[in-house]
Every structure is written in structure tokens, then in C-alpha cells.
Write a structure and sequence with these properties.
The protein is of the alpha/beta class. The protein has one domain. It contains 6 helices and 7 strands. Strand 5, helix 4 and strand 6 form a beta-alpha-beta unit. The radius of gyration is 25 Å and the shape is globular. About 14% of the residues have low confidence. GO terms for molecular function: intracellular sodium-activated potassium channel activity; outward rectifier potassium channel activity. Its main location: membrane.
Amino acid sequence: KKEKAADEINLIEVGEHIQSSRRPSIAMVTEGKIDSSSDSDQEEICDKCRGPCIQHKLQRTYPQVRTYIGTSNTVCHMMKEKRSLCCLKLDEKCAHKSATSAHEYQWRNRPIILAADRTSSGMYNLIIPLRAYYRPVHDLHPIILLLELEEQDSLNEAFLDAISYFPDIYWMKGKIGNLDCLLKAGVSSAE
């Protein structure tokens, strides 16, 4: 037994010596841009995005506005900067965008259309898993909320504020029974 104990001590000593002279085989992988010596415009153009990569505009974090969130928190792909509320409305031009229909956006991924009569926490519970951190950034589908609001009704400001931090989420007034609204929302190419 004394010989066996001595062997174990030697093995431990050898193991400690090896570990101190080697790097660990498992190291933390950090997300970040690898610096290169050439700073060309071609490096910033993403083949999947067909322009500047959306990944540079996003971060993985908890949603900033938690008004509509249920009890569980999920890390999501969130915009680093809040989008303007005017940019959330799909069917109206604003100073930042000129597209007025889903077809004009020319998204790479097929949109998901959600038709409802009003906003609710159920919508938010649909959005969270569709923007969760484990989904690849380039595979995120645009989400269009088709809301049956009356002409005098407007969307809840708290809800607009909550969705403004998520990438590629838009809303528009319309009815599921109206073909023009469905075509503007992109039903012909929807998921």
C-alpha cells in the first residue's frame, strides 16, 4: 500500500508539472472581430446580408424593456441601439427607410406574419424564442405583426418601445381578410 501511495504522489507531481508547462486544451472562446492588417471595404460586406453585416448591430443580452415579459428571462439577439419608432411601421415611409411592403425589403429569410386584433403578452412570448441567442443571427426571420386596429386606434407605446430593441420586427394596421394587407405584409413569401 505504501508503494501505491508513493506512485500516486509521483503521478500527481508529474501531472502538476505538465499542467504548468502546457496551455489548457479548453479555453474560453470570445466573440469578436479578428484584427487584420488590411482594412478593406470588402471585409465589412457580408455575403449572407448582402451588405453590412447585421451581426455588428446586435448584441446578446436580456431584453431592455420588460413590460410584456413573463417570468422567465431569455438572452436574445437585441439591437445595440434602439430603432426609431417610425421604422417599425412596415407600410409607411420614414426618413430612415423607403420600403412600404415586405417585398421591397428583399429579406434573405422568409417573413413570419402574426395577425391579431390587439397587442398582448402572448405576442411577446412568440417573439422571445424567435430572437433567442441560440438561433444563428443570419437565420432570423423577419416578423410582421398585422394588427386589426381601428383608424382612430394607435399602438400601445410600451409595446412599441419593447419591440424596438429586437431586430427585424415590424407592424402594420390591417385585417387578415383583406388581400391587400396580406400582400403588403408578404404573405406570398411568408413562412
